[in-house]
Amino acid sequence: MYTVIYRMKIIFKSMLILLFVIISANAEIVKEIRVDGNKRVSSDTIKIFTEVKINEDLSTNQLNDVLKKLYSTNFFSNVEINLDKNILYVSVVENPVIQTLTFEGVKNKRIIKLLKEQVEMREKTSFIENKVKNDEEKIINTLRTNGYYFSKVNSKLKRNENNTVDLIFEVDLGDKAYIKKITFIGDKKIKENKLKKVIVSEEAKFWKFVSPRKFLDLNRVKLDEKLLYNFYKNKGYYNVSVESSSAKVINESNFELIFNINAGKKYFFGQIDLIIPDEYSIESFKKIVDTKNKLEGKIYSLDKIKTILNRIDEIALTKEFEFITAKYKENIVDNNINLSIKLEESKKFYIERINFFGNYITEENVIRNSLLVDEGDAYNEILINKSVNEIKSRRLFKKVEKSVDNGSSSEFKIINITVEEQPTGEIFAGAGTGTSGSSLSFGIKENNYLGKGIKVDTQASLSDTSLQGRLTINNPNYKNSDKSLITSFEATQIDQMSKFGYKSSKTGFSIGTVFEQYEDIYFSPTLSNYLETLKTSSTASAAKKKQKGDYFDSNFKYGLTLNKLNQNFQPSSGFKSAFYQTLPILSDDLSVINKYDFVKYYSPNENAILSFRFLVQSVNSLSGDDVRISKRIYLPNKRLKGFEFGKVGPKDGQDYIGGNYASAINLATTLPGLFRDLESVDFSLFLDIGNVWGVDYSDTIDDSSKIRSSSGLAVDWLTPIGPLSFSFAKPITKADSDKTETFRFDIGTTF
User: Residue range 662-675: average pLDDT?
Assistant: First the structure.
């Protein structure tokens, strides 16, 4: 036995020695590297690419690696290497350089730009033949996305001197593929007009000449399938399937887009169980319990489940529960879906470091001040994602991405924030016209001044009755805090001689801030100083003429806003409550201005949005003097439709003078997308109630306390040339002195 083991050891050692000899025989020390065949790429650069070190062994396998490294640079079409007598010979054939890249047959500059962004080969880079076909496919896909479904592409090469080429893509755009009709077949159970509102693709209509969604795009159709699937899932159709989608040719350039849907039966929420760890109190999750109790027996909806999970996340943001996660299971019983939501403690991690990349212009503290977490805090995925969204909301960056790496130990994480900067300057102009007159505006904005995230906004506007210029500087992170500092310089001239018997010229500045005092509660204090020159008409009353002259106002204004809207643009639920007050510090008439504005939205279904608005305003003088005519209150048109602006309330001779008080109640039912083919148009039925009253400088002025009201139809239409709004209103109650208007419209645009 011993002899056998001894012999095996001898054999094993011999094999190791033999292997060493073989390896040694195939390895050679490199004393020198010689390069030939190169013209554009220097020999020193090629030597660096090889990663071969002088006076080190180089085996056969390592030679193959050198070959791969040289090919991977994309600089060479052919590479030969040979190691002989301690000299590494490298012979290369360089790829030609693309001198020009053109797309023949395409005249649209926007399309050309898109194509250049999509292709892999670029001007002044190496031409690689095996990438041509791939670029042709990318061009086809890009053109189809932009409606050129029948496009064809061929490539050709023009060789020049000095090993350069002109790469030409010959493009036959063909006719644009329009979606003439969208049809839904199968067991769809939901009306077509509702389904058309769900998808992105839309039927081509003459007023949609700027919409890219009217063109057939197969990538967009795939998105439509997902949108339809999610829509049905939220309507209770748990087992829905979008069986197929197809494009049927109607004629040479028009298609019918067909979706085949199998909705299946409708499901409802059954029993919903909430399982929490023993160490947590059920009282902490009372809102969750109330929510899930309300859902039991209701139509199944994936979004409703997400609502419960999001509310659990909100609770998890508190220190007590920052390391809990929620998982749910579904169990189908007949047409009911029972839910089991289980809360579990997750492993605790902490933030070791936060790194920032890509901010070459923007200072790091600008990004850091948008974060809701910091080094040393507990790692919280919710807060980190909110931080990323907060950075995006600054609109300073084209892209904002995050990644997470392991830290120096198992309980630490490293967060990497990568941004891609973009131009932050804007030049805009605008024009508008309507029943109240015409207007022009111009402005220049810079949203990241000196890379500090400071917003500088200059604006000038001209209308039939006013001339205004304004410079606003907004530092949203003043002294690295979460508070903004807003400074504004303004010069305004208002000529209301023909309508209200006065002209005002005002110049001055203001400085203020806005910050979130509590959750969704914002506080906005402002200090302002203005000089005003007031002139009155020759036909004005003696009491009004007394007010002409020069005035100085130093005021403190503050606002408290509670914002619970689901979204600030076109909200459909929630409310917003705001109170503003202006207090005189040093003023010739010591006026106190109060304003309270409340709005509530409610959606009983997807086809209607109900809104309730309440407004009350007041202005009073602490000194007992008359309130200046330019400070008196007028109700805006949108708060009392059916009446000319300013032509409601107290009247001094021929002049409407506004009031010391105003109030308005607005009830409306908005029907978004009432007509599928007019989805950019919102129709609303409204009832407006309001009044302007109170005169402090004369007892003889007509001051009717009669409540004004009107009802009618309002239309808001986002047209290709800008927003258009008009209303048909019929006054219900009014005073004899009021001026009414049945129809009103306004149209404006920016370019």
Answer: 84
